[in-house]
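Pair request: fold both.
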Amino acid sequence: MAPRLRGLLFGKGHMGSHHARQLLARGDVDLVVVDPALGLPAPARLDADFAVVATPTVTHLDVARPLLEAGLPCLVEKPLAHNADAAFILAQYGRLTVGHVERYNPALDALWALQPRWVEAERLAPAGPRGLDVDVIDDLMVHDLDLARALLGGRLHEARAVGVGVHGLGLDIVKARLELGIGVADLTASRVSRAAHRRIRVVSEGVYWSADLAGRTLTRVRWGEGELEGERIAVAPEDPLQREHAAFLAAVRGEAPFPVPGAEGLAALQLAAAVRAALDRGPMADQRGPDRL
């Protein structure tokens, strides 16, 4: 059995509670949870092998930077920071993993080897106990911005978007169309829907794929061969967060590189900023993306 690791979890809110439950269920981790608002103060000495930062997004830089500066490996929840400038600072540290947990969804395993031309993602969540310190772009759409960039590759050529706020605290529903890398991504995100829904559709040469990310199912249609009925593809019965922890802890032990490094989290936030800029200019304007994306 691998040696036990000592971990610190900062924040026990919506996502922090999931991290706590999964890490405490492992047989190779001792965990201390830090959340002063819940009466869980930080220990006198931060004596640990790793840290997970699941505090509100606006605090990520202040919480994670001194830990990384001290050489402590950190898994920082998505989005990496509250803006691209703060994310750029954190991205300079090599022992950093960004918590883009959807990358570990087993329903996506068969898609990473593709070279798709079109990606469509729809991510809907009901109003509930979500953090409202960021808008729906950084809260929900950032998952699919990250996936679209990983699947399509390359820089952003053009962005168009439309969005509305419902609660008066920022954008709650956004639809974006991105010309990205070798293809196009159509993304929809809402955090005021009646029911939860997470689905991504990918079109590659001759094949159409539909993944239910919540139900963890994958369907393939070989349209290039005249198929109309979909074929269900086997999906590993694994939990994405458990997979994320396993990959991160392997890196902590020196057994593998750190997955989803800071540069990936920064790139997702740069795409989010491009979507926000497209919203500001209006959906019908020409929205050319910066060369750095």
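--- second member of the pair ---
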Amino acid sequence: MKILITGVKWHYDLPGINALGFQEIGHQTEIFYDNPSNWLLKGSKILSRTPFRNFNNQLNNKYRKEVEGKFLDKIQEFKPDFIFVIGGAQFSYKMIKKIKDGYKIPIVNFVVDDPAFYSRTLFYDLSAYSGLFVIDRSWMTVLEFFNANHVYYLPHAGDSLNFKKIGLKKETDIAFAGSLALRMPNAPSGYLRAEILNALAEAGLKIKTYSPGIADTFEEFPALKNIEYYDEYKNHEEVNKLYNEAQIVLSVHSPQLKTGISPRVFDAALSGTFQLVQYEPELDELFSKGTIKFFKNTTELVDLANYYLRHGKEREETAKKTMDWVLENHQPKNRAKLILNICKI
């Protein structure tokens, strides 16, 4: 079967990860990245930060039409049997209906950001899809109003292409990768992560992070000045090295996730490094007992970090259980099979 996958090109490559899953179970895939850089996109971003931000919507609409035109060209060229859209903020209700009803191609959306905050039209646009797959169960109820009986839970998968155990010397106590930006829309995540990392730094632990925006946190979280940090994004190959050099990986979810978990949890597991994960209810569903360790507040986190730094054998045994569990249950091919089974394709 020919499957067309579309989504954003970013420092992590969700379209590529999902394409790998479909390829591993025998399907032909192509990727269309729906965020090509051009003057419309740049102009929209600039206007959004000026008194002329009312013109932002006009530029966004022009940009969407341009991307949609290129996407339709790709469909006509590749002639897919199935289309898997990740996010899809660029695609309008009208275009999705044209693909589904006019071209007679099933097209589903993988909702990876809270649709209540990500785009002003996304709820309406999502109602046109053949089905919706959602990473957080708390978003499902409202989406049922827009796309009744076609909303399904689908957690992220681990990036098994880039995350693996590579046997580096573990020179750091705690490793973390994620934005600490304090401006919207990332500010809630930034403050949460900065608070957690600051508690670990105040406890005297050796921390290394890849955290764009971290310099903005120093006034309110001064202990972060003393950790080893890089104020920028890194690709997954570099993040895998960061994880492999640490005794413990810290996994913290975005506050937009009310019950679901970050893909970093699966990625850290595949790196073979022990991790401490901020608790969310879906951890209980996605991991068997004893395969994951979590914390519910900073006091508990600091205590657990100190305990597992002292108990290396227990730490490594747990890391092995977690890695084996993810390799068996949470790889891209596991998700690809589930998607096609639900869609009956």
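Observation on the second member. The domain at 2-157+332-343 is CATH 3.40.50.2000 (Rossmann fold).
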